[in-house]
Amino acid sequence: MDFQVIIRNLPFFLQGLQVTAELTVATMVGGLIFGIPLALGRDSHHRIPRYLCLALIEVIRGCPILMLIFWVYFLLPRVVGSYVDAYTAGLVALIIFNSGYSSEIIRAGLRSVSHGGVEAARSTGMNWIQIARYIVLPQAFTNMTPALISQAVLVYKTTSLVFVIGVIDVFRAATIVNNREFRSYEIFIFVALVYFIPSTLVSRYSRYLEQKRFSRVGQVSSA
């Protein structure tokens, strides 16, 4: 095996990796932005928003991400009435996909907040915004952090699918280099490590946070 092919094309791989990282961060942020109203609507006391959000979440979670990417890529230009580049279409599809899963993580985080703490804050005269800002959201995001980190790992690996519509992420960069160099083993071993090493390290950190949270809860309960 000749891994010099990696060194020769390293700048191109790094450009693709930058696109992958940008897609991962933007997808996580977008998933949270759209996932929060979905989560709140899913737990609404009103039937229409509750059933509407439930239907959206189930459709998103039940739709294969690859099909969603193709739908957005071919349908979005018709909706907006102008050309949409592959990067934007891929990002929109990833955000839609992630919002369905993030909404369930957010909903679980909000439900994990003790009602006793909320009632205690309400008895002190705090309004709804203050309760949400100082009581509910800090506790909820602390509880959902491990799950969000695990979701970020999933998003990081899922971004590789945007190569099918021509986005030059690290996986697409690998296929381009392979078509020119014909070094499949070396190139895709390198790409596998690019996905495997960060995913493994971040997943271990997520498990560490989860174990730390459970041990802290156990100490509080025993006290």
Give the SSE layout.
Blueprint: H1 4-8, H2 10-42, H3 47-62, H4 65-80, H5 86-111, H6 115-123, H7 128-158, H8 170-181, H9 184-222
Q: Can you put this structure into words, describing what you see?
A:
The structure is a single chain. The chain is mainly α. It has a single domain (about 15-220), classed as MetI-like fold. The protein contains 9 helices and no strands. It has helices at about 5-10, 10-40, 45-60, 65-80, 85-110, 115-125, 130-160, 170-180, 185-220. The longest helix is centred in the last third of the chain and has 39 residues, at about 185-220. About 25% of the residues are buried.
In short:
Helix content is about 85%, strand content about 0%. It has about 220 residues and is mostly helical.
Task: Offer a few descriptive terms.
223 residues; mainly alpha; 9 helices
- Helical stretch count? 9
Quaternary class: single chain
Low-confidence stretches: none
Main sheet specs:
none
The coarse silhouette is globular
Number of domains: 1
Helix percentage: over 70%
Output the structural class: mainly alpha
N→C terminal distance: 59 Å
CATH top-level class:
Mainly Alpha
Please, what is the CATH homologous superfamily? MetI-like
CATH architectural designation: Orthogonal Bundle
Q: Taking all residues together, what is the mean pLDDT?
A: 86
